[in-house]
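A reminder before we start the practical. When you read a complex entry, don't treat the lines as separate problems. The point of joint prediction is that each chain is placed relative to the others, so the output describes one connected object in space. Small molecules and nucleic acid strands, if listed, are placed in the same frame. In the example below there are two entries. Take a minute to note the order of the lines before looking further.
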Amino acid sequence: MSENAPTSPFISVSGLRKSFGAHEVLKGLDFQIAEGETTVVLGGSGAGKSVLLKHLNGLLHPDRGSVEVEGVDIASLSERALGDVRRRIGIVFQGGALFDSMTVGENVAFPLIEAGLRNVDSLRVKVSQALETVGLSGEEEKLPASLSGGMRKRAALARAIVARPKCLLYDEPTAELDPLLARTIIRLIRRLKEEFSLTSVVVTHDLEAMRAVADRVLFLKDGKVRFAGTPAELKDCGDPFVFEFLDAGGGRPPSESGR
Amino acid sequence: MKRLAERTGEAILEFLTWFGQVTRLAGEVVGSIVVGRVRPRLVLVQIVAIGFGSQLVVVIAGGFTGAVFAAQAYFKFSELGLGSATGPVVSLAMCRELGPVLAGLMVAGRVGAAMTAEISTMRVSEQIDALRSMGVDPVDYLVVPRAVAIVVSMPILVGEAIAVGILAADVLTVRGFGLPEAWFWNQLEAHTGVGDVAVGLIKGLVFGVLIVLIACRQGLTAEGGAVGVGRATTRAVVYASLAILISNLFLTLLLNYWFPLDALTFQ
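Here is the predicted structure of the whole assembly.
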């Protein structure tokens, strides 16, 4: 896990603040995400996890502070200039966010077509490879509405990886899934990391997911970083709130093995 | 009293913000079209949905309104011995006011509601964010094709409403009430010019643009799950309908400058 010591940060966040109306959601965050690492952002509901995630590919703009991706501050980029950054950073939304009007195959092909790929045969091959990776071979013609929650998440994952991004952001990947399906998604996240050497950021409050995939953990509370370190360090951090969260979520503090 | 002033101030501020957002969206759409970011395939899909799909409602609305307007005009005019005025009165009313306004209201109800419902559902289910996360501008992908499609479709729909309204008036008054056909058509042709039709088509085009901008703005800013989708859709139809009715007055005054309505004189 953490034996692969981080070298250059892929994403670097400093002094990040964000408010919606009078409510300040992020109150000055500083952290770095190293290339090839999986960072799990833990925290309770309303801690600002998803808001933070959407800052990492420029879907939200900070009120103050900076978000640097490979050394470029994306906070100052225009929507059009962000297109290039976003093609390097895929995102899997909580509900999948598949386009309802398109089939699964069209959804997965969408990022490739937008990137300029027009050859039908190579589109078909890439789409079927991506679907095979997530275990959805042969489901190209189905509409998102006819898929189960787990299938929708896997299809969304296929769409996120098809254009081979360098980094993948996951928003609550195991939420609303039964434990078996959640485990399938967790295995998939690990496999994708190993197969494609992906840098990943996983927002979750699922401790089993955290244990299984995290190289580093970022614990958010009330818009601030309460803890940053390895899962092993999390266990021994001595913060009563963190301990209570871990205790309530998993019945026990995270194991050192992380599996 | 203070509270009333505060509320009025808030309402004015809210309206100005809304107006600013609609205007900004218009600017973005024009910008995208000027630099050629129009997706022809999506435009065609929208022309089918907006233009082709709205024909039946627009034709029915135009037909029945033309007929009922003709009936009322004929009842009164024939009493005064002016039955032959029915044709021009119906045609001028259909061309200049009823055709575009009715088509606009029908399209606002049918197409505007569907647009807002679809886009706001995409917004609350993060599909808009998904588009952006793939480097696709939602305005280019969702709004521009609809705007181009409605600019193409609305004048045709208005033309259909006008034509069917006049034909329905002919069926009712000439074939139903026995008004001599020559009276109806000769007077109609004598008093209806290209300018009258142009007024209708220009109005239809403006109404179409208003419908798309308002419906898409409501959709793109929707919040709050299914309730938010419902609220955005209702507001889109109400705001678009009001915008049509209010702008119609100003368009009438403005267009009358270029295409003045002559006094009716009968030979």
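Discuss with your neighbour: DSSP finds nine helices and ten strands in chain A. What might explain this?
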